[in-house]
């Protein structure tokens, strides 16, 4: 496996730092701006542990775009780095990263972590598919702990279904987990589904799910796979009233499961102002075998960040734990 930027830094504890219109595109009206002095951050506890492989997905609400999302970019950066730095989660999938320079600034504030953004030249097809809107497109990004994960080949997949994926085709990344121990080869697929609670949008999400299922069945039939992201729909039923989940192709598949399905069944939400779980972890049966039962959580970090939805993002991090073989 050809590895990208795998600096072997030591595992560190939490950082001692202060610090969606869902899935919309730049033509949508931005939300109200907060007062730049309105947020304070309390000490956030760690969520991950050395005994488990901990995974998160987080929509970070137009990060790096001064015209959309939270109005104070420096304040948003402080919130993101405090949460990620404190959480001690091994692998993060992010959605709605707009500015590469802002992403690099976030990484620079996270010792022991590295990252990759969808339009990086190291991502096959990335610059071609993720530089629309004057290079202000919402991008997928991956952040990982360098002592727990090594990253190999990365590519944009299913570009032929670009419309079904709302112009954001998935980012597929090869991983080596626990490189100093088990060295398990795995795959992460980052997803940001089509937004909106209308039947046409639900149909596009359904076509995207079916295309992704065909792709993974053909190319990763026996690999541990995590599909992580803002699915922009739920998995027990659709956000479109009376309709089935557009992800039924995975819900019904015997070799796939949503590690986050219990959160949907409990009626929980993954966003500040929306009633449904729309951010999920979909895992192949190889990865599901390692899942720590009951570990899925929509992590309410708004307990520690004042005015969280207006200063940081309107989604909560959604997290799961796994016990890798050999640990």
UniProtKB/TrEMBL annotation:
<feature type="signal peptide">
    <location>
        <begin position="1"/>
        <end position="21"/>
    </location>
</feature>
<protein>
    <submittedName>
        <fullName>Endonuclease/exonuclease/phosphatase family protein</fullName>
    </submittedName>
</protein>
<dbReference type="Pfam" id="PF03372">
    <property type="entry name" value="Exo_endo_phos"/>
</dbReference>
<keyword id="KW-0732">Signal</keyword>
<keyword id="KW-0378">Hydrolase</keyword>
<keyword id="KW-0255">Endonuclease</keyword>
<keyword id="KW-0540">Nuclease</keyword>
<dbReference type="InterPro" id="IPR005135">
    <property type="entry name" value="Endo/exonuclease/phosphatase"/>
</dbReference>
<dbReference type="GO" id="GO:0004519">
    <property type="term" value="F:endonuclease activity"/>
</dbReference>
<dbReference type="InterPro" id="IPR036691">
    <property type="entry name" value="Endo/exonu/phosph_ase_sf"/>
</dbReference>
<feature type="domain" description="Endonuclease/exonuclease/phosphatase">
    <location>
        <begin position="56"/>
        <end position="292"/>
    </location>
</feature>
């Amino acid at each position: 496996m050809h590895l990208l930027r795998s600096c072997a830094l030591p595992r560190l504890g939490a950082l001692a730092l202060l610090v969606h219109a869902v899935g919309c595109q730049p033509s949508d009206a931005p939300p109200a701006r907060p007062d730049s002095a309105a947020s304070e951050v309390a000490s956030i506890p760690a969520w991950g542990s050395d005994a488990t492989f901990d995974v998160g997905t987080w929509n970070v609400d137009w990060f790096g775009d001064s015209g959309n999302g939270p109005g104070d970019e420096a304040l948003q950066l402080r919130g993101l780095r405090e949460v990620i730095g404190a959480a001690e989660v091994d692998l993060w999938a992010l959605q709605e990263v707009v500015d590469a320079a802002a992403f690099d600034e976030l990484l620079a504030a996270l010792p022991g972590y590295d990252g990759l953004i969808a339009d990086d030249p190291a991502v096959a097809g990335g610059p071609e598919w993720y530089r629309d809107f004057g290079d202000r497109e919402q991008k997928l990004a991956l952040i990982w702990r360098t002592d727990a994960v090594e990253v190999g080949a990365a590519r944009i997949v299913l570009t032929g279904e670009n419309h079904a994926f709302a112009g954001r085709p998935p980012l597929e990344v090869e991983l080596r987990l626990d490189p100093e121990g088990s060295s398990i080869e795995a795959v992460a697929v980052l997803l940001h589904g089509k937004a909106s609670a209308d039947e046409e949008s639900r149909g596009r999400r359904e076509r995207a799910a079916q295309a992704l299922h065909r792709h993974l069945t053909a190319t990763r039939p026996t690999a541990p796979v995590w599909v992580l992201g803002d699915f922009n729909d739920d998995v027990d039923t659709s956000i479109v009233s009376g309709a089935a989940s557009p992800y039924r192709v995975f819900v019904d598949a015997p070799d796939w499961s949503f590690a986050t399905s219990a959160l949907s069944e409990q009626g929980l939400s993954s966003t500040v102002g929306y009633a449904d779980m729309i951010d999920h972890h979909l895992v192949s049966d190889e990865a599901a075998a390692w899942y720590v039962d009951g570990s899925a959580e929509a992590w309410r970090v708004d307990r520690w960040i004042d005015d969280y939805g207006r200063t940081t993002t309107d989604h909560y991090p959604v997290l799961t734990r796994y016990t890798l073989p050999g640990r």
